[in-house]
Structures are given as C-alpha cells and as structure tokens.
Amino acid sequence: GGGAAAPERATGTDLILHELATGNELNIGNVADFQFNKQGTWLAWTIDANEKIGNGVQLRNMATGAVLPLDNEKASYRALDWNDEGTALTCVKGVEDKAWEDKLYSVVAFTFSNGTLQKTVFDPREDKSFPAALTVSPNRTPAWTDDLSAITFGIHELKKKKPNAGPPNANRGEGDAPPVAGDAMRGRGDEPERPDLVLWHWQDKRLQAQQQVEEGRDKNFSYLCVYRVAEKKFIRLADEALRNVTAAPKQQWAIGNDTRDYELMSNLDGRRFQDVYAVDMKTGARKLALKKAHSVFGPSTDGTQLLYHDDGHFWVYDLANGQTANITAKVPAVFWNQEDDHNVVKPPTQPLGWTKDSKAVLLTDGWDIWQVPVKGGQAVNLTGNGKRDQIRYQQRFRLDPDEKGVDLSQPQYVRAYGEWTKKAGIARLENGKVQTLMWDDAAYSGLVKAKNADKYFFTRETDQAYPDYYVAGAALKDAQRLTTANPQQKDFLWSAGAKLIDYTSAKGDKLQGALFLPANYEPGKSYPTIVYIYEKLSQGLNNYTMPTYNGFNKSVYTSNGYAVLMPDIVYKVNDPGMSAVWCVLPALEAAIKTGVVDKARVGIQGHSWGGYQTSFLVTQTDAFAAAVAGAPLTEMITMYNSIYWNSGGGNMAIFESSQG
Q1: I want to staple 534 with a disulfide (CB 3.0 to 4.6 A). Which of 292, 394, 407, 610 is the partner?
Q2: Which of 553, 586, 594, 554 lies closest to 570 in space, CA to CA?
Q3: Residues in contact with 5: Cβ distance below 8 Å, sequence separation at least 6, in sequence order
Q4: Do 565 and 588 touch, CB atoms closer than 8 A?
C-alpha cells in the first residue's frame, strides 16, 4: 500500500492508411495524433504507446513511402500542426515531474527546406526568463509565424502535487494513524465527506452558475507567448494584466483585449466594452489603442491596422504609429443599423471584410456594398442600386476558404434580397459594376466554387420546393439540378402557395406579412388560420419548411387545411407587449381582407419571446379563438432575475438592451 500512481494509459490506436488507387492498406500502430500537410505530400503523426516506449513524432513521404523519425523520447507528444505552405511542423512534448500534477511541456518544431530538416526546441526548464510555476500548454496548438522566424504557443499554471498519504482505510500501512472514531463528517472509507456547497459572491464579475458552465474553458486557458528562433528569445505576450491576446496576420503585431473594468456591468446590462492594446510581437511591448471600445472588427490583412466602429462611424487604428482615422465621415451613406429596434445606440452594420491589399474595407449601409479606402480617397458604391431599388446586398459568398482578404481583381458573388418583393438572387461584382445573375421568387444559399474548375454549386428553394442542389458556370446560366432530395412530398398535401400582405402598424410603420395558403385552397373560400409571431417573419415567404412534430410547423398546418400568417413586428422601447398589439392586429385585419382568413377561426402561436407576445396579446383582444404560448416569458420581474442555465448567465441583459 505505498500509494504509487497507476501507470498512465496510452492513447495511441491503429491508424489505417488506405491507398485509393490500389486498395492497399498500411497499419501504423499506437498513433495519437496525425495530420497531412495541406498539399498532401507529407503525413505526420505522434506515437503514444504503453510505457511510452517508442513515443515520438514521425513523418511519411507520401510519394516514396519513406518514414522519417523527427523526435523521440519517453514523453507525451500532442498538438500537431502544419503551416499553410506545408514546409513547417509544430507540436508539444510533455514529461512527468515529481513536484507537479501536470506534465512539463516543451515546444518541438521543424522546418523543411531544400531537403534539409531543421529542428527547434523550446524547453521552459532551460530558459531563465520563463515564469516560475508555469509550463507550455498542450491545450493551445503551437504555430509557426508566416516568415518562420518565430513560434507562437500558450503557457498555463502548474498545480503542485499534494503530499501522498497513501490510499485510505483498507490499504493503510503499518505506520498510518487509525481513523478518528465518532467523526460525523466521515463517510465510506473513513474519508471526510465534502459538503455540497457552492459559494456565490456579490463581487464576482460572472455569476457562479456561469463560472461552473465555463469551468472547462477556464481550466484550459493559456497565455499567448512567442519564441523567436534566431534570437533564442522567449517573449510573454499575455499575462494576468492582459489575458486575452491574439496574433494579427503576419504576426508582427498582436491584439490584446481587457474586459476587467466592464465585465460585471456587461453581464448585467448586455453592453460589451473592452480596452484594446497593440502588442509588439518582437519585443512584447504593449500600448493602449482603444479605451472602452464596443465594436472591434479585427485587423487588416497585413496585420498593421485595426477596424472598429464608434458613434455611427467606422474608424481605423494604425498599430504602428497609434493614429486613428474616421473612414466613413465623408461617405454619403449611414453605417449604423437604423432599423435595429433594440435598446442600443447606433449599432454598427456588419463589415464584409478587408481587401487583400489592406488599402480598403468593404462596408454595407444595409443596402449597398461600399469600398472605403483607409488612407484617404474616394469611397465607391460597388452595387449602386441597392438603396434606390430597395434591394439589400446582404452577404458576400466566400468562394476561396483560404483567401487572405477580398481580392477585388476577381469577380465577387453576393446574395441579393428584395426588401418589399421578397425576391432573392445572386449578383456578381466585377470591374466596379454589379450584374444580377439569379433573381426570382425563391431563396438561394450555399454558393461554392470548384477549386480547379469554373463550376459553381448552390441551392435554390421556395415555400413548396425543397432546397435542392444545382451546378452552373460562372454566369450561373442554365443551371443543372443535381438532386431530388424530397420526392416523397408528392404523396402528401402541402400548400397552395404564399401571398405577401402589406399593412401599416398602429404606429405608422410600413410592414409585411407572409400568408401561406392551405392545401387544396379554393379562391373565395375562407379558412381557419394560425398566426405565428416572432419579431420580423415576412422574409421567410420563400423558405421551405420540413414537417416536424415538435412545436409550431407551418407545413403541418397548411397540410391539414389551415392558412398560416407570419407577420412583421417592430418594437418601441419600453412597450414590447403593446408593440405586438400595434403590429399583429393590423396584419390580421389585412389578411382577413384577402378573403383567405376566416376571422371567426383564428389561433395564435409563439415560442419564447413569441410566447410572451402571445400571452400578452390575448389580454388585449378577442381576435383569437385559441392560443399556444411555448416557453413564454410571462412575468418580467422574475424573468429579469432568472438564470439561463445553459450559459449560466442572468437574463437581465435581455431586459436592458435586447428584446425585453
């Protein structure tokens, strides 16, 4: 009964390498991690065997089949990672230590150039500048910088081993003291019972419930560091004063975010702020870039500038010289969401990204896409007709998953949506002009391009047509349908189509609703109708709905002979309940005027926030013969002080700056 720890269980398993051309298979034993480089020319793996015999990193030349051992030791190897060019590899290596519960890890890295292998090892135990009681973290994958001059990695705190008193009770040694008799807090095996007690403290910036949910994330947290190979210099970029640091592209600068001064109030009122720091990755020197920033969108493609939003405008911060510039002040457009009805001041429209050369950003005013230079010059409206024709150019399809910034020398494809027609399509931006390629009463999504061919792949759907896949050329003409994914639909009643309803709220807001007709609809006949509500829903006019049995489902109702009305609701601050009344009742009145809706047989249904609206509406009107409120928020004071247990956070932010 000496209390010796059981040997660590090996994690390696058999890796089968199957050659597609011949069907031949190669079994590689005791493999813990493996990764091909992006080009597929090399396969790297780590060995984790019993007793750590033969543990190490190995490399296979996929052209010749030759296997090259890169590093071997009686240690645990983890976190393999290739660089994008497939010319450099990193991992971590951990060994046991008598003083610590955790392994002591080091960084092991390799570069391959002109047939020459170069190995770099950073072992914290051999570096006097490395902080005490910390080690390299296996939970953050190390990575080479783009220029192969340095390696980034994480470090975390170590836990000291507790004095080993040996196993309790039956395994006691001769010299062990006997258990204390009559101790009421002792349980099985004479071990003290731990009270099931969770302490909540009023000064905690996160609720105890949130801390419990995020326990795993907290345990795996690590501080970003860098090791500069030529200088053999360790630099700590993150510490307790600046915990969250992320390397910018090109790894000359890193961005640090400090939320400590704002975290408590952010969790209470939902308004997120942060102090932003520019960190020099060559020296570790940091400087305050932005104080109490609320909308930071990330660095430029070359990693030298930072885009953020403040008071309705977009700004750029130069990481090197610390200068800021308002880049939208002279642009004849508004770059904050004027239609956002939450209790938030001038929320930004979401930018579409930096250009490849870092000279401009692509922004949207909610209608058009603008190319806005960051060093002065004229902004260009790339789409031109969005606001004029009430077409929203909403999304840029990222056709190259490996792109580094938007390359405007190449055609750009964007999703277009008609605000009042609900038509949708795909447009192409090329040479400063926009061309609509697809445009009809449908919804399009998922546009992707073949890597080595001028072929494009997308889905098209309507309220009656499943989102099947199509393939076409660059102009998206004569698209070929590839799938018939829901042929069983023909055997069921579905819907006779959809109508778009225009109406005005009691407060003068111009709104719309989607009215879905029942199966076997006969013009001139009125039908029982279900009204389903949740903020704005008319944009779903051309969306396909698979039947389900759980909660509200549009297709189940239309299949069973009901019409379904899904109206828009816009909100006035501090009147969320009456806002629903002001919008839903005029929508219902407009739908009744079409002749489709039998006003004596109207039900209403909503879930969560829609459940609150449903519960409120039935206290204000007799228009509904039946109501279903799913998971409704029916008592605001209690709801305000309740906890959302999935996240562990409180609901008060919903009532301060969101739906409530």
Answers
A1: 610
A2: 586
A3: none
A4: yes
SS (H, E, C) 390-449: CEEEEEECCCCCCCCCECCCCCEEEEEEECCCCCEEEEEEECCEEEEEEEECCEEEEEEE
Q: What are phi and psi of 181, to 5 degrees?
A: -75, 145
Residue with token string 């603008």? 370
The residue whose two tokens read 């009023």 is 202
Structure tokens of 515? Answer: 């009215």
Query: d(Cα 608, Cα 629) in Å, to the nearest integer?
Result: 8
Q: Quote the mean pLDDT of the chain.
A: 93
C-alpha–C-alpha distance, residues 365 and 197, integer Å? 52
The percent helix, strand, coil of the chain (3-state, each to 5) is 15, 40, 50
Instruction: Report the C-alpha gap between 290 and 285 in whole angstroms.
Output: 16
Q: Which residue's structure tokens are 């249904």?
A: 605
Single-letter amino acid, residue 366: G
Q: How many helices (DSSP H) and strands (DSSP E) are in the chain?
A: 9, 42
99-143 confidence digits (pLDDT tens):
999 999 999 999 998 878 999 999 999 999 999 999 999 999 999
Which tens digit of pLDDT belongs to each residue from 306-336?
999 999 999 999 999 999 999 999 999 999 9
Q: Which two tokens stand for residue 654?
A: 């919903």
Question: Is the pLDDT reported for residue 550 higher than 90?
Answer: no
Q: What's the token pair of residue 80?
A: 């393999």
Written as one string, the DSSP assignment of 240-264 is: TTB-EEEEPGGGSEEEEEE-TTTHH
pTM over 0.85: yes
Say whether pLDDT at 177 is over 60.
Answer: no
How many Cα neighbours within 13 Å face the side chain of 28? 21
Instruction: For residues 484 and 519, give the distance between their C-alpha atoms in angstroms, rounded to a whole number.
Output: 22
CB 12 within 8 A of CB 49: yes
For 497, list phi and psi in degrees, rounded to 5. 125, -170
Torsion, Cα 539 543 549 555, to 10 degrees, reads: 100
Nearest in space to 564 (alpha carbons), one of 506, 613, 611, 499: 499
CA distances from 460 to 227, 436, 441, 446, 556 (A): 49, 16, 10, 9, 22
pLDDT band at 180 (very low <50, low <70, confident <90, very high): very low
Q: Strand ranges (DSSP E) for 518-596? A: 527-532, 563-567
Query: What strand order describes the sheet that includes 274-280?
Result: 244-247, 253-258, 274-280, 286-293
Measured distance CA(402)–CA(85) in Å, rounded: 12
Nearby residues of 490 by Cβ (< 8 Å), 6 or more positions away: none
What is the model's pLDDT at position 194? 79
Structure tokens belonging to residue 370: 């603008």
